[in-house]
């Protein structure tokens, strides 16, 4: 049976990666102002049109892909590392440490993630590092809960007990035997995490809490274009479509990976 979700998601994500890596070298300067092209519609010279300062929307969209994907990748890696460590230690240790760590995770999960990110971004201020901190503050909790649940079901397996009997340390058990075994569900979670982070980064940039101008971000482009919805709808359509296709691609990829891993097990 063909896994259509995986195929579509892989194509969209591969295209996004290609755009993020090569796009900035193919387009114009995203910060170059051309007052003669203010609010110009799509044309041969500017396929996506120009914004209120005459900046090329194609170039800004290509650069926005690099920024959005780069931020999402950094936050996913950090969240995955922290969450795996916390969840793995909790599952292996059990007892009071497990209870303490998981209650802390429960408390953080009680807060809506985007609201906490907005609050942190407002406190820290706009900027790349501050944006990563704001987005990563909640991201690791989902990985911690997932990894803990998977390891609790794995640590009684015979190969884990055999490694323990041979004197393997908890750190070796976790890094060598347990975490590799939970790679499949964690990969699925990470794919959906990419989609959520692209939306969250766009939302913070839209609110003015992301990377400050003149750096182009999809959320910032939406914010800049909302004042010209009636006379220049392409200003919001272009970044909106870019966000939608990116989220769709990672969600399709996550669905496809979940189906594939599910059949393998």
Radius of gyration: 22 Å
Write out the CATH superfamily name.
Answer: MetI-like
| Euclidean distance between termini CA atoms | 16 Å
The low-pLDDT segments are none
Q: What structural category characterises the helix and strand content? A: mainly alpha
Q: Please tell me what the overall shape is.
A: elongated
Helix content: over 70%
Characterize this entry briefly.
By secondary structure, the chain is an all-alpha fold. α2 packs across α8 and α8 packs antiparallel against α10.
Describe this structure in words.
By secondary structure, this protein is mostly helical. The protein has one domain: MetI-like (MetI-like fold), CATH 1.10.3720.10. Helix content is 73%, strand content 0%. It has helices spanning 4-26, 57-93, 95-109, 113-124, 128-154, 158-165, 170-178, 183-206, 218-225, 234-264. Helix 1 packs across helix 2 and helix 3 packs across helix 5 (128-154). It starts with a helix and ends with a helix.
Secondary-structure blueprint:
Elements: H1 4-26, H2 57-93, H3 95-109, H4 113-124, H5 128-154, H6 158-165, H7 170-178, H8 183-206, H9 218-225, H10 234-264
Helix pairs in contact: 1-2, 1-10, 2-3, 2-5, 2-8, 3-5, 4-5, 5-8, 6-7, 8-9, 8-10, 9-10
């Amino acid at each position: 049976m063909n896994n259509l979700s995986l195929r579509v998601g892989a194509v969209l994500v591969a295209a996004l990666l290609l755009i993020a890596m090569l796009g900035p070298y193919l387009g114009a300067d995203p910060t170059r102002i051309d007052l003669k092209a203010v609010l110009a519609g799509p044309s041969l010279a500017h396929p996506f049109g120009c914004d209120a300062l005459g900046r090329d929307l194609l170039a800004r969209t290509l650069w926005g892909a690099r920024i959005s994907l780069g931020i999402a990748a950094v936050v996913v890696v950090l969240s995955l590392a922290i969450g795996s460590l916390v969840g793995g230690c909790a599952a292996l240790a059990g007892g009071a440490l497990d209870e303490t760590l998981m209650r802390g995770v429960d408390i953080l999960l009680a807060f809506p993630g985007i609201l906490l990110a907005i609050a942190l971004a407002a406190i820290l201020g706009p900027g790349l590092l501050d944006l990563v901190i704001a987005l990563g503050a909640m991201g690791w909790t989902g990985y911690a809960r997932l990894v803990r649940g998977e390891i609790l079901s794995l640590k009684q397996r015979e190969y884990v007990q055999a490694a323990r009997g041979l004197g393997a340390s908890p750190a070796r058990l976790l890094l060598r035997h347990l975490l590799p075994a939970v790679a499949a569900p964690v990969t699925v979670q990470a794919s959906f995490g990419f989609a959520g982070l692209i939306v969250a980064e766009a939302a913070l940039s839209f609110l003015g809490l992301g990377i400050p101008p003149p750096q182009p971000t999809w959320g910032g482009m939406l914010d800049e274009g909302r004042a010209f919805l009636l006379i220049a709808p392409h200003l919001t359509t272009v970044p909106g479509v870019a966000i939608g296709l990116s989220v769709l691609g990672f969600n399709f990829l996550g669905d496809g990976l979940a189906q594939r891993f599910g059949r393998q097990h």
